[in-house]
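Quick start: read one record
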Amino acid sequence: MLRPGGRLVAVEPDWGTFVIDPGSMETVRSFFCFCSDQFADGATGRKLYRYLWERGLADVEVRSEPLVIHDLETAARVINMEQFLAAAQEKGAIRRDEAAAWHQEMKNADNQGRFTFAGTIFTASGRR
């Protein structure tokens, strides 16, 4: 329960904005769609303004920040990539050979300093 005059701050990603290079668009899209579908709403970040407004908060502000990571290990930890990639293969969202080839492609790119993960993180605040 938020007290009168209290401020609520919420921080959420939007899985629909996440991208990785390298990788085929189809593989990357399939992977992040699968990841997003593992949450009640993988697009919560883009909806924070509406959610706070609908709950009667005042002075609602939303900021979006790009998250850009050029290190595969860090990106993998941030999005729990190993668990999601294993689950995507197990549930048939991505074929095992496709996942293995993509993972190797990402490792090679990382070793050469040309890996990119990016997405959007939303921060919203409002006052009761």
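Strands lie at 7-21, 58-69, 116-127.
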